[in-house]
Fold these 2 entries.
Entry 1:
Amino acid sequence: MTEKQDNSFNNLETSSWHYQLGQSFKALPWGPHRLPVKLTLDDALSLSLEKSGIGYLYRREDQSGSVEKFIQTGKGEIYLCPVEPFHQPAGISQHLLLKFEQPVLLEPRKSVTIYLTVPLEIAVVFAGKGIDEKVLDLFSFLKPKLTLYGTVKSGLVCRHWQSSIHQSIPHLNPLAEGILQLTIKNSGNRWAEVSQTVFSAQAMKIYYNQHLVAMQATMKINSELTAETAFIDEPLKTGMHKAPEQFSVKLLSLPGCMVMEEGY
Amino acid sequence: MFEWSGETVYGTVTWLNLLIAGLCFFGALLLSKLISIQLRRSLKDKLSNEHRGMLIKIVSYSIMIIAILWIMPMIGLEPSGLMVAGGIVALAIGFASQSIIGNLISGLFLMGERPVKVGDLVEIAGNLGTVEDIQIISTAIRTLDGLYIRIPNETVFTSSITNFSANPVRRFELAVGISYADDADKAIAIIKDLAADHSLILINPPPQVFVDTLGDSSVDIIARFWSPTSEWYSVKMELLWQIKVAIEAEGIMIPFPQRVFWSGSGEKADLPDSID
């Protein structure tokens, strides 16, 4: 991904950036960005926050349409950050089902660490002096799909994502996908064949820097049908920033770990 | 100093009796409040609002009734006398309020069984709507066209209930007829692609799209999709038209009902003159 000055937004009062995916990149556009600002991401999405009368007009445009919001505020800045992929479609799912393209066979009482890709959404956050931060918008470069984990009677509607298994951090589209370092531990006395894992949104701990979005998790296999998954609240690399959590464990009083009772 | 406490107020009841009775009453009131607060806190995540409120009321009223029965002898009232009188009154009230008692007991059973909860889309006794409130005597639902209906719990309990929100997902079905001259496999592939592209159609359970019948005017394709229960109807409304547009864009015809009359070559048919 390259970062370059975009001539189409040549405006003395507006700083603008152009990020092209699929190329080697200097830095991701997380910010902070002083206002007014215009960003074009991957030639597919543009967003701007520009002076409009006594406030600012936020505008995001992509293939699916445009979003506009008028913001009445004084001075401030915006930053972008990766967030949990559960806002689209809104309010439907708070679980992520990661389907492995190749199953992992694990002998009894052994553990393995693998790397998977996970879908991301991006939050546009307004930060002003002396006031709470406000999420202006949430968007994603990926089309969400849903699936059911468990039975029709008592299953969980999950955000679906399929990932290959990698033994090191793979190349990926860092605006759309993050890296999950997953340690699978087989606590049982039998071989375990793992082809999927489920995580709760309430526990997702996303860290990011200017080149990578990453998280760490564990999956403990308890028996032939049950496993327990949890995120680790630590950065994969030193110097990574923690993304603000959109689903708080304390707020919703929900458990941070996820117990998979319908197989893995 | 407290000689006044031994003075009788009426009958054998002294001031001291009245004081103790008053203290017991306020003590019971305080106890019932404390237990209510504790129950409200401890059951916050375990019971729904309405069930928690009902349980708290039952517990606090029970404490107060027991306290009053305990206090009555202190102030010169015998509960046994009241019970005789109360029994007669209860008999009369019982006959007069059979349906209320029936509704009340049904309400208790409904709270135990919990076939519906507030916010569910249900059909009860032919009424389709969203459950607004479940009380001990009746259940209120709001129909899809905004009407408020109060259904006695006895009716709810004895009727068959369809709860459309009981499961997290549900299946819906769309039927599409294409012309006999067109390729059904191509139409099926188009419908499957549309389903794969739609965010709210589940990957698992997988969609089913197949030729169901060879109809009078068309080859009838059935498409079955699973969707989150809260979203299925909007998906259904949206998808049928998308299928129609996508199929026709690929040159596949959705025929009108039609009947072909064939008059033959005009020769007289070789029919028997009569049937024995």
Entry 2:
Amino acid sequence: MANNPLGTQRHARWPGWVLIAVLAWAALSGCASSAGDEPGTSSRAIQNKGSDTLVNVALAWAEAYRVVAPDVSIAVTGGGSGTGIAALLNGTVDIANASRAIKPDEIDAARANGIEPVEFVVAIDALAVIVHHDNPVDRLTLPQLADIFTGRITNWREVGGLDAPIVLVSRESNSGTHVYFLEEVVRLGDSEIRDIFAAQTLMMPSSVGITSEVSRNVNAIGYDGLGYVTEEEKVLAIARDENSPYILPAVNTADDGSYPLARNLFMYTAAEPEGAIATYLDWILGPQGQAIVADLGFVPLGEGGDNGPSD
Amino acid sequence: MAHLTDLAKERATEAAVRARPAGNFLRRGWSETLIELMIRLSGVSTIAIVAMIFLFLLREGLPTFLDIPLRQLFGSRWYPIDELYGLWPLLVGSLVVTAGAVIIAVPLGLTTAIYLGEIAPMWQRELLKPLIEVLAGIPSIVLGFLGWVALAPIIQSLGAPTGLTALTGSLILAYMALPTIISISEDALYAVPKEYRDGALAIGATQWQTIWRVVLPSARSGLAMAIMLGIGRAIGETMAVMMVTGNAAFVPDLGLDLPLSPVRTMTATIAAEMGEVAQGSQHYSVLFGIGIVLFVVTFAINMVAGRLVGSVVRKRGGSV
């Protein structure tokens, strides 16, 4: 009987010893790993930041590039196109990702800091406009889309569909895709127009949110990168105006520019790239990097296209 | 002589008896002061932490109320890209969703607690209580997912243009607030002395009369606390609400279909936009401004409820 409490007591001390052992092991292995990292200080670290549209591709590039060049480590973070470009201007990143072109005032700010941003088109993103499969509408013009998304047209009947309310589905306003759609569709590429999305627009925190709402709601219309569209949604053919041909988004129509909602995705460097950064960008623009673009559902750059710096 | 030494002995033991507690007191003095200090520190730190959070919110969010005209802050459009910072639709969104959740969860929660505490036989109580605790442990994101996948299509089949509505959010929030309301109300009912019930039953009250006239009024402040904590859980919830309410920032028309219109809550707005604003920008400080509004609204609800409970208790002359 007297032994029993002692036994349990010893038992209770067990975790303490285990904890100490684990801590010691962790400390030792921590030392070991940091010692292993020491030669790494001489290797090149590339800081890469910006667009959330590009972040998955950028991560895939960085991972694949580890195999190609093990001594180059690439740190990729998102945050948005504007954040990435701002970081580039402040000199805290080597490469900024952007799903829109750099703005004139950003170039001015860069020059004030003694930085001359160099632009690379690294991939193409076709935006698909999607509806439910049971929706009889299968083509729209850009002005019709503008009327729909600003709330001037609120019933499918007005664009040749059923007598049903239109449910607008969009990405959140901080998304580069949202901004692109705002500028090119809602405002039809005209900077004089100050129209914005109708207040009733459902704002989805993710691309998957848009596709799944559209796939189950016969009244819904949304937009999403072609890479995110599945069999469950119907992709609309888009025309610039009623006199232009209606084009479906695809790799070839995005590439030759006939599909009106295709945009370039960019990487910016603070100066003409040299050394490891230049090698990395060459690899991205080469067949291996572009294969990853295609794998993730974006449109790779065309053969002999505008692969070089366009600035 | 003999009795003198006896007397001396008696005095000595008396002194020893007196001294022992004194010695204990001295020894306890150390640890007691220490424990007291620690308890005081924890108490004060709670106040300090709340104060620091509020100061931080004020520092980051106050520029909102100084830089942006109030007319714009109470505008009906929230569109940060064009610097439209109307908080009105977000405030209405939060209140509609929370009010809906309270309307659903409070009657359900209180009746469940009454059933568990007053009516259910022991074996049912022992089966149900752990199940309710499991309910409380379900992560909110899982409930949000459930609402998105299972509940939204049902709401849409009720005739709404979309299943992502205020009602969907209210139902999910009600479900999340239920375990809190049930467990705390049940504790409040449990705290009512058995003599109250015995007394009521002894003078011929039925079980229903006992519950309604005796048990519930005595447990009133505890029940109010349960409801308050339930509301607190509902108004502050973010992820689940963001997934199922559609996040459309507009002020819905007052009417029967109010619950079936999409809304955007304050919490969802902060969560969706905080990740991508540049630190120190106007948008950034407006998001903190929303935090201040949220803080003030929650605080006001707690104050009002506290007053209500206090006045009821005073009027009835009871205290539990």
